[in-house]
Write a structure and sequence with these properties.
about 240 residues; alpha/beta; Carbamate kinase; 9-stranded mixed β-sheet; two-stranded antiparallel ribbon; 11 strands; about 20% strand; globular
């Protein structure tokens, strides 16, 4: 097994599946099955998921919401997604613990590094909701922060694209994929992998990132086993 402890970053939009909004139960259960495949290999798994399928703070700001209020609404959207994923994992026998960046009893315990590491060592999947708990920070930044806090081996960013490309492969048929790239190269090329704050956290703390297609069955297990799937972004 290549990695013993991972932070899986999922986008909220991914949970929509073929829908235009909300949570597609089929996609949710597919993700739960993928996560179970690595838990069964005794990999310690922490998860941060976005909320864009329900509400995105930045979009709310363009619609007249106060930015801070909108960001908190977005954090609550991530809590809903995290609860849904927790339920899906519990339904297939995977023990989970939900932690939150904002106090939200009785739904979740408050996030702390010690709590998260304790639950991971007990074999539980730890889902960390509500971003960093602060406005103006994305869930990508939250994923980077949490990965560093729990001393993960790697961040696994599950997307609907099989890696990092020179351009958006869904729009540019001539886009070519990188097997490996540095944070500096990705930033200088203007590649839309993560926001700059998340990138900086990863670079300064030497936290590698693998971008891969989460929607292809078996990919998550392949990544954890060290197979050449997706794109490795490193220092």
């Amino acid at each position: 097994m290549q990695y013993k402890r991972v932070l899986l970053k999922l986008s909220g939009e991914a949970l929509m599946g073929n829908q235009q909004y909300g949570i597609d139960s089929t996609r949710l259960n597919e993700y739960a099955t993928e996560i179970k495949s690595i838990v069964d290999q005794n990999v310690q798994v922490s998860i941060v998921i976005g909320g864009g399928n329900i509400f995105r703070g930045l979009k709310g700001a363009t619609q007249g919401f106060d930015r801070v209020q909108g960001d908190y609404m977005g954090m609550l959207a991530t809590v809903i997604n995290s609860m849904a994923l927790q339920s899906a994992l519990n339904n297939i026998g995977i023990a989970t613990q939900l932690l939150s960046g904002i106090a939200i009893d009785p739904i979740a315990e408050s996030m702390s590094r010690g709590r998260a590491k304790k639950y991971l060592s007990e074999g539980k999947v730890v889902i960390i909701a509500a971003g960093t708990g602060n406005p103006f920070f994305t869930t990508d930044t939250a994923g980077a922060l949490r990965a560093i806090e729990i001393e993960a081996d790697v961040i696994l960013k599950g997307t609907r694209v099989d890696g990092v490309y020179t351009a958006d492969p869904e729009k540019d048929p001539n886009a070519t994929k990188f097997d490996e790239i540095t944070f500096d190269e990705a930033y200088s090329k203007g590649l839309n992998v993560m926001d700059l704050t998340a990138f900086t956290l990863c670079k300064e703390n030497v936290m590698p990132l693998i971008v891969f297609d989460m929607n292809k069955a078996g990919n998550l297990l392949k990544v954890v086993n060290g197979e050449k799937v997706g794109t490795l972004v490193r220092v």
